[in-house]
Amino acid sequence: MMILLIIMPVSCKQTQAPREGTSPANNIMLTEDETKGGIMTPEILWKFGRLGSFSLSPDGSSVIYTVTFTDLQTENRTIDLMKITCRGANP
What we know:
By secondary structure, the chain is an alpha+beta fold. Helices cover about 25% and strands about 30% of the residues.
């Protein structure tokens, strides 16, 4: 158990700097061809963020939740941590 506690922090590396908002690497805008096609394809569905876990803040004023974006070309996933007030303001 002690070995795992020592190895775990060293083995995890952050590949990107923390950022605010949606990463430009996550191209979630539909192309002109996708818009003209008029049908929902798997590629279009992957452009939508996937909602993950959520939790209410201790004071009950905000909801914290995760949104996962997947880049189909590299198969990399980016998880954004979002906060929104219970009154529905911008995340």
